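Hi R.,

Here are the chain sequences for the assembly we discussed:
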Amino acid sequence: MLEPLVDPDGAPFWEYAARGELRVQTCADCGEPRFPPRPCCPHCQSFVSAWALTSGRGRIWSYVVPHPPLLPDYAEHAPYNVVLVELAEAPRIRLVGNLVREAGAPLGSFPPDRVRIGARVQAVFDGNRPPQWILERP
Amino acid sequence: MPGAAGLKDATAIAGIGQTPFAKHLPEDEKTLACRAVLAALDDAGIAPGEVDALASYTMEETDEVELAKAVGFGDLTFFSRVPYGGGGSCATVAHLAAAIAAGQASVGVAWRSRKRGSGPRPWTNTVVQLPTPAQWTRPSGLLRPVDEIAMLARRYMYEYGATRDHLFNVALACRNRANQNPAAVMYERPLTRESYMTSRWISEPLCLYDNCLETDGALACVVVSRERALDCRHRPVLVHSAAQGLPAQHHGMVNYWNDDPLTGPAWTAARHLWKHADFTPQDVDVAQIYDAFTPLVPLSLEGYGFCGRGEGGAFTEGGALEIGGRLPLNTGGGGLSEAYVHGFNLINEGVKQLRGTSTAQVPGAATCLVTAGEGVPTSALLLRS
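And here is the predicted structure of the full complex:
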């Protein structure tokens, strides 16, 4: 599986994720959250930012179900879902991930035909991987 | 008075050229580039030694030095590259038009040569960062451009009630035009609704026929001043208006992180394009709209003002995109059915329409919109005869 190719702007996100926390870069001056992370705030141009802890809750904004041809590690699990989740605290921030049966389950573990736009989901973490999502009410 | 005259009708496309299109061509990209460029110059009746300006895509592999020394260009005084893949197609012509209108050059050549049919698929490269924020998307299996666009397509269908039939209408119009175009890869391959609806998925909700072709081929065109074009071999096709578009807080094909992911670069380019035009979307006789994936067409129809927000799917109903319809589309077959060469074939097809020489000619066509890739920083041209 592809590992995130981390850049300096994104590194804190992954460090917090490894501790099981979903945090979002937020301007320390004007308070606007922003994603993907970047050096300065597009609203007030401040270079000072903090990483705000979120509840990890969100709703599915959209999803796709990829089929081959895919990279071999992914083809093995296809067809699988990829969801785009709007964060409850910051609806403009939508994270790409997989809806899975339980934390650490493979990306094909949740049946694609049961994914729905609008479903409430919760982030769960599995080491250095992107956050996964489980249904808030299975 | 800088900028007083502007670009409007100051320049024209005087020549077009192309190689054959196929899944596999034996010659390399550099040779194909040379052939397309020389064909375009011959079509214009201009000698290679007169060329002093070049424009292409940052993804183009044949560089200016290689092309210039191979085909025998003169001294070049302007050369530019446009980023973001298929978003750059129309901007190559726009850059040349601006350079010529500003007096920086007199004969410009734009080109694209690509062996996408027989070469590697860019997304299979796991080392190089693609021009997207890959760390946030690829590890979860959102690997290919089709996956990224399918995410927006699903939401579009959910919000506005667009259907697979609407996407089929796009694929069918392109295929029908390709069936009239002997140079098209899909010339002898008709498409039916049944074959569309039962084809394999690539990334649900998009199926095989929602995806463009993978093609080897090259194209080029020649841009000169309007006055010079009058002395060339064909009726000049005027560059009436041109625009690039990179909206505020846009993120490329993964445009997931702003208020409204479904209004993309087309909206930005369109505002500039129409502001500088003497006519409106209602006056466009034929359109060449970038179609790497079918959902880009309804999104572009909305962005360029042919219909309202959310109406792009419904716009395709009743044969609107066919010859004789409200807006005949991609009359050479487009990227879906003629060739996928990062949209350059759409520019040349626009020129053919306004010369009256298309294989699917719209009677009396006098205005044509050509667009580059929606979903990435884009560009567009309004051409007129």
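The first helix of chain A runs from residue 11 to 18. Chain A touches chain B at residues 1-7, 10, 35-36, 42, 61-67, 69-71, 74, 77, 79-80, 82, 84, 92-98, 107, 112, 117, 129-130 (CB under 8 Å).

Let me know if anything looks off.

Best,
T.
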